[in-house]
Amino acid sequence: MARRDSREAMTIFRGAEALEALTLKAESPKSGPCGRRGQGVILSRPPAGQGPPEQEEKPIAMNGKPDDQRPELPDFWDKRFNEGVTPWNAGGVPAALAAYAARRDDRPRVLVPGCGHAWEAGWLARRGWEVTALDFSAAAVAAARQTLGDWPGELVCADFFDYAPAHPFDLIYERAFLCALPRKLWAGYGRRMHALLAPGGALAGFFLFGDEPKGPPFAIAPEALEALLAPWFVREEDQPVSDSLPVFAGRERWQVWRRLS
Ligand SMILES: C[S@@+](CC[C@H](N)C(=O)[O-])C[C@H]1O[C@@H](n2cnc3c(N)ncnc32)[C@H](O)[C@@H]1O
Question: Which residue range(s) make up the domain with 233?
């Protein structure tokens, strides 16, 4: 994602202008602990002598939207976590996950991408499962740290599309992650999930269905999810969900997809 934006910046800017934009971006003091690489932004600056000198330069995206209005960037999520506007936060563990965990008698190595407050990650770790919770928003990671406290799992601040774990996972838990991704990023979702899982591993969790064009949350049509995952997975479970939060009510289903080969 970030790499694609970087290439876009290279193409659109030319010569010294491009170099200046990319250099300023690389030196931006806003780079967080998760790192912000190649986002294709330019920095707007007031003309010399105008504007308060202490005013922070505001990054403006190539498409004209500020970074904190672009859900493909951590800034979007940082803003919402920092302002406490997190209507997806369940504050606990959904019933379908608890039931699924009870059905498993092993202790899988689990990845929770886009973990947010990480309630489920903490709960699964307390069951003795080996859990890695991952998020690219520094504010989300701070919230997760608060939820998790001193826990036995691993909390990673990284972009899902760049993350390179030492070992593949047995299980990836999905909740409100696919629907947080702008649709232009969906094409890479199935391939990444497949690559992060060991053979025979499973992608399990909640998928948000619908056809509303705007998001987040970006709902998906059933046939579109099938098209995303069928090349790499076969669906094993598909159930309605009864304890959805209002923001997802009536639109989410619990599904388990088994990794092919
Ligand atoms: C709607 S929130 C859901 C959080 C959590 N899964 C939950 O159910 O409460 C989406 C989360 O995904 C994270 N996220 C979005 N894109 C990401 C990416 N490319 N890599 C890692 N995290 C990402 C956001 O920072 C945010 O914390």
Answer: 95-259
